[in-house]
Amino acid sequence: MPNIKSLQNFQKEIEDLKSEIKKLKNRKKYGLVWEEKPEEVVELCKEKLPVLTEDNKREIRTDKEKPVNILIEGDNYHALSVLNYTHQAKVDVIYIDPPYNTGAKDWKYNNDFIDSNDTYRHSKWISMMNSRIHLAKKLLKNTGVFICAIDHYELSNLGLLCDEIFGEENRLGIVTVVHKPEGRQFANFFSPSNEFMLVYARNKNLAKFQKVVLSEEKGEEFDEEDEKGRFKLQNFIRLTDGKYSLRENKPTGFYPIYVSSDLTKFSLEKKPNYEIALPITNKGVERVWKTLGDTFMEKVEDGAIVAKKESGKIVLYEKFRLSQVLTTHWIDKKYHGYHYGTKLLEEILGEKIFDFPKSLYLLIDILKITANENATVLDFFAGSGTTGHAVLELNKADGGNRQVILCTNNENYIAEKVCYPRIKKVIEGYRSNKGLGGNLKYFKADKAYFIEAKPTDINKKKLVDKSTEMLCLKENCFEVVKKGQNFKIFTNNKNKYLGIIYDDTGIELFKKEVKKLNEKIITYIFSLDDSAREEEFEDIEKLVELKPIPAVILNVYKKIFK
After folding, report:
1. Same domain, 354 and 397
2. Which of 4, 319, 386, 410 could form a disulfide with 231 if both were Cys (CB 3.0 to 4.6 A apart)?
3. Residue 6 has what pLDDT?
4. What is the pLDDT of residues 206-236, one digit of tens each?
């Protein structure tokens, strides 16, 4: 006769089979399907809530006027969870370079290295990426752009996954980057010499590129510049398109344009002291202009037409700029990983302690295209910190105020001995290289400081006591103005103020400081429910914007961890 334990196991197997059958019935007909594998760091958040703790010893500060950049050490799922409270819909660009799942034990899942013999290798990788990209998508502004580097091992899987998360209609392109022209050693059949960047918009209708990146060769070709950028001059006579460039086949395109004597004004009507220009070549062939008259005048208004006097006649040129539609094959030698990634990092750190960092110039160029001068940039697979380095270089080059948020674990001390030292040296200078300047705050998403998820009064108070770093990060206020009994007041370089009241005993003392400052302060106040206790601030209601903690934090966590 079977024992009770055997019956219980049998019943569990039946329930598991029922669950699988239900999944099969509900399974979609098209798209990426994989065997979902539970991940310990994800499951942990159902029981405990992540918070940040600052490592004050690693703070870098060189200029109060510059943005405060962020480095978070810890599992990126936990970091993204915190950022879903502090930075939801605030990020302009996300760039990541995740493990490529080559089977070479280059990443861990539940603390075990994943190698090519693991039959669930692809499912584990997809599960890992799926949970993180879903959280990351919520951080993007509606105008934001997501970029993921990858090679051929997981390209097809990642493409389907991103199509599902962002929508195929929001895929901007797949860029091929030649990073190793000689190909990989010991490869069979084809030797890969390139990687890829998958580029998606949060909303394709709202996204736009910032600048066009020129290769060295193209840079020489586009040899003139104005306030709108670089351009080259092209004759405004249509010289291509075969028979349709000739007057006899397109007579509406042959019309007179009148140009002032100083070559700066244009008209389609005859005017005194204006000279006529016609689309006739030096050989006397009657052709047509590139546009009709109305469009020509629009180009004049836009400053796109230039007139020159050549061989006694007026010649018209159009300023030709590179199109905002970029090619998807990037072959510039500055994207090669060895010289502009590995060797550069070795020069900065003084030794080789990290394999295969990305080319700094690849990151600079992709951020030139996607990140405006005030953008917030996130890299949650920060590795050696190339993205952070690129943001600092861009800010130095164009005077921008971009802020970068880097997240990396500390596997093999990558956060402490690679990413952080690189950013520190780039900011402060190394060897003969002058520092780029900037500021950095170093936080940890350490499991040792997680708060129990059960919404008891004790746990709520613990979360409030541990909330300072998260609230400072959310409001971008880090400079302490006043530290009193059970309250703190912070500011930033933009005259923004943040107040945190940790306990009832801090309310009256906080109010006295607010009256002294006489500035509007975003105020987070401890409350066991969702109320912000407005009645206690009626006398200074115009000076405070009240928000209850931990309710505002718990409400976000409830949504992402449900």
Report:
1. yes
2. 319
3. 67
4. 999 887 775 666 667 788 888 877 888 999 9
For residue 114, give Cα distances in angstroms to 38, 132, 148, 346, 444.
15, 18, 21, 27, 25
Q: What's the pLDDT band for 542 if we cut at 50, 70, 90?
A: very high
What digits encode the pLDDT tens for the residues 234-252? 999 998 877 889 999 999 9
Distance (Å, whole) CA 506 – CA 484: 8
CA distance 383 to 390: 13
Q: Answer whether residue 5 is part of any domain.
A: no
* CA angle (79 as vertex; 480, 459 as ends), nearest 5: 70
Task: Say if CB 501 and CB 507 are below 8 A apart.
Answer: yes
Give the pLDDT score at 113. 83
Q: For residue 550, is the peptide bond before it cis, meaning its omega torsion is within 30 degrees of 0?
A: yes
Q: What is the mean pLDDT of the chain?
A: 91
Strand 224-226 with 229-235, pairing = antiparallel
Which of the listed residues 292, 320, 348 is the one where a domain comes to its end?
A: 320
Residue-number span of the structural domain to which 260 is assigned: 223-320
Residues 255 and 193 in one domain: no
**3-state DSSP helix/strand/coil percent for the chain, to nearest 5?**
35, 25, 35
Work out the angle at residue 545's Cα, subtended by the Cα atoms of residues 540 and 548, and round it to the nearest 5 degrees: 110
pLDDT at 3: 62
The answer to whether residue 14 is domain-embedded is: no
